[in-house]
Specification:
263 residues; alpha/beta; Rossmann fold; 2 domains; seven-stranded parallel β-sheet; 49% helix; globular; EC 1.1.1.100; NAD(P)-bd_dom_sf
């Protein structure tokens, strides 16, 4: 199957590790021109060199970008256009908000989570749309969480704003279809990333047990019987963002090994 990604202009936010990094690697293997962003320049340098070494694709660049700063987002998207002439694919990703229940958080916590996990996506999309509309084609994939189908304990900030991503994506799928711009949301389940390891560590501390036992217990609840690998998640993302996807839009897809039981 030809994914029609060679030479395409891809922007990936929070691309220096975890799911963002894995997704960048998959796009690079398809010959795309990949622009990474994160707040950590040292990590970006390492990831750029690693991807180039593994794939042989020299068309990898990065921009240091704090997703809570509108001017950073604008410069990121301007760089993509100056480099490749347009933006074909936007992959929206951001770090997860703090863990905790409702009574733990004040207004500042809610505002920060909103700006990082929802408003940043709105801002990147706003910057990308003129270029996608001009060429009458574009793909947007928003990273969320399995909480878009089934809420997660002790993650009220994530549960709230990941749901907002779904509403945004669904609404935009209606508005943008006439321009051949397809937008979808993907929700990772228990994928083996630093974020999931952090959550396992927090849970182990609360239960007074080991991280290994927490993971083993979680794996017993997954029908496939293990945590997913970032690369497995990334393959679905790349398909959704590719020319091979011509009719799938406005959907929320959970990649979780069958863990979530909600319809």
């Amino acid at each position: 199957m030809d994914l029609e990604l060679r030479g395409k202009s891809i922007v990936i936010t929070a691309g220096s590790k975890g799911l963002g990094k894995a997704t960048a690697l998959e796009f690079a293997q398809e010959g795309a021109h990949v622009l990474l962003s994160s707040r950590n320049e040292e990590e970006l340098k390492k990831v750029k060199a690693e991807i180039q070494e593994v794939t042989g694709n020299e068309h990898i660049q990065y921009v240091v970008c704090d997703m809570m700063k509108p001017d950073h987002i604008k410069k990121l998207m301007e760089h993509a256009v100056s480099w490749n002439g347009t933006i074909d694919v936007l992959i929206n990703n951001a770090g997860g908000p703090p863990t905790g229940n409702f009574e733990k958080f004040g207004d500042e916590d809610w505002q920060r989570a909103f700006e990082l996990n929802l408003l940043s996506f709105i801002r990147t999309i706003r910057e990308a749309l003129p270029h996608m509309k001009k060429q009458n084609r574009g793909r947007i994939v928003n990273f969320a969480s399995s909480s878009i189908k089934q809420t997660l304990d002790n993650l009220i900030l994530s549960n709230t704003f990941r749901a907002g991503i779904v509403g945004l994506s669904k609404s935009l799928s209606q508005e943008l279809a006439e321009h051949n711009i397809l937008i979808n949301t993907v929700g990772p389940g228990r994928i083996a990333t630093d974020r999931v390891a952090e959550l396992d560590e927090i849970r182990a501390g609360k239960l007074g047990t080991t991280v290994d036992e927490v993971r083993a217990q979680a794996e017993r609840s997954i029908p496939i019987g293990r945590y997913g690998e970032p690369g497995e998640f990334a393959k679905t993302v790349v398909f959704l963002a590719s020319g091979a996807n011509t009719y799938l839009t406005g959907q929320s897809i959970v990649i979780d090994g069958g863990l979530v039981k909600a319809l």
